Amino acid sequence: MKGDRIILSQRQMQRFEVMSLVEAGKITLKEAAEKIGLSYRQAKRIWKRVREAGVKGVIHGNSGNPSNHRIPKELRQKVLELSQKCYGEFNDTHFTEMLTEREKIGLSRETVRKIRRAAGMGPKRKRRGQKHRKRRERKAQEGWMVLWDGSPHPWFGPDLPPCCLMAAIDDATGGILAARFFAFEGTEGYLWLLRQIVTRYGIPISIYQDRHGSLKRNDDHWTLEEELAGRQEPTQVGQALRTLGIQPIFALSPQAKGRIERLFGTLQDRLGAELGLAKVTTLAQGNALLPAFIRRFNHRFAVAPCQAEKAWRPIPKTLDVDRAISFHYPAKVGLDNTVRLGELLLDIPPRPLGRSYAKARVEVRQLLNGSWKVYHQDRLIAKHPSTTLQEPIRAQRRNRPQAPEANSYNWVYQASAQPIHDKPSG
Questions:
Q1: By CB atoms within 10 Å of each CB, which of 72, 88, 362, 394 scores lowest?
Q2: Which of 120, 9, 123, 5 is nearest to 59 (CA)?
Q3: 260: buried, middle or exposed (CB in 10 Å: 19+, 13-18, 0-12)?
Q4: Do residues 168 and 192 lie in contact, with contact meaning Cβ atoms separated by under 8 Å?
C-alpha cells in the first residue's frame, strides 16, 4: 500500500471480486467460500471485513510487518561471520551441516542460503544442464561391482603440490569402501585399495575401471610367450585381479563410470573444505582425517541396496592375500645364485642337500609393506628386507641379439630415488 494506492495480489483481487458478488446478492456466502477455497467461517470473516473496510478488508493485518519467526539479527550476523571467516570454502548444504554439528546452530539449508545470498555470497559451484545420457541401474547386491579411480587435485590448497586421492565405492550402495592419499595415481594405490576391500568385505564379483596404464596394457608389444598364448599378460593390478577371480570391466569414457566421477566432484567440494578447515598440509595428516570423514560421508550419502543378500565372496583358506596382492616379477636365478632386479640383488640360499637354484625360473614378490619374497614352484625359498615401493615399468631388456628373448618386453623393477610411472592411456 503506497499512499492512497492499494496494491493487491491476484489472490486478493479474486477474493474481493467474489465478495462483491456476495454483496450484490448474486451468490451465497457458502458458494463464495467454495470459489476461494476457504471454510465458511473464514469466508464470513473476510466478507465482514470487506463490508467494513472495503477493498482493504482482503489484505491481511500483518502485511508489511516483519515475521514473528524471523531470525534474530545477532544470529544472522554470527552465521555470516562464520561463513566468511571459517567456512568460506563450504557449499550451502555442507555449511548447514557444520553449523549443526560443530556450532550447535540449527537452521535449514534454505535459510542459510538466503542469508548468504542476501550478503552477496554466491554459490560455490555454478550448475549447468547436462547432456542426456542413459542412466545405468545400480547392481542389486552389495559386492557385485566395485568402482575405483584416482583424482589428481590440489587437495591441500593451491599453494601446495597436488596429490592423488584414490578411492573405491560399491555400486549398489554408493558408499566409500576405501580411500587414501598417494603422491600419484599408480599401481601401489590400486593394490592398496584392493587389499583393503578384500580383507574388510570380501572378494567382489567385478571391478569397473578406466584404461589407466596401471590397470590395462596399452602397449602393442608381445613377448614370444604371449604370442604363443594368444594374449598379453595383464598389468600388476590385472594379475592380482586374475588371481582373485575378479572380472575387470573397462569403461570407454568418463561418463560411463559417472558414479565414481561424481564422487570425486563431491569430495573435491566437501573433503577439500574440511582439509582446509583442519589445516592439513601432508599426506599423513590427510590420511589420518579420512576414516572419520568416510564414516560421516557414508551415513549421509550411501543408499540401501535393492537386495539385502551380499555378493562378496569369502577369501579361500588356501589363498595368501599378501602374495596375491603384491608386485610380481618373474625372474631367473643367476649362476651366482642371486636374482637381479635393476640395482637390487636378492640372494638365494641353497636347496636342500646343498643344491643350487642357478638358472631356475622363480617368482619374485614385493609385498605392500616393502618386503621381498622369492618363490620356486609355489614354495618360499628366500626373503629380503623391505625397500621403498617403486612403480614398475614395462621396459625393453637389453639382451644380446642372438638371445632367445631378445627384444622382449617384461615387467622390470626400477630401483631409483624417484618412482617411475606406468604411462597413462591418454
A1: 72
A2: 9
A3: buried
A4: no
Q: Which residue type, as a one-letter code, is found at position 65?
A: N
Q: Are 165 and 179 in contact (CB under 8 A)?
A: yes
Sort residue 355 into left (φ over 0), alpha (ψ -120 to 50) or beta: beta
Contact between 94 and 270 (Cβ < 8 Å):
yes
pLDDT in tens, 341-361: 988 999 999 988 888 999 999
State how far the Cα of 207 lies from the Cα of 220, in Å rounded to an integer.
24
Q: How far is CA 174 from CA 5, 90, 147, 193, 324, in A?
A: 58, 22, 9, 16, 27
Taken as a whole, the chain contains a residue count of 426
Neighbours of 33 (CB within 10 A): 20
The predicted pLDDT at position 422 comes to 41
Find residue 213's DSSP bridge partners. none
pTM of the model: 0.69
Instruction: Find where cell 598389468 sits.
Output: 235
Residue whose C-alpha is closest to residue 332's, from 308, 295, 359: 359
DSSP 8-state symbol, 57? G
Cell representation of residue 263: 564422487
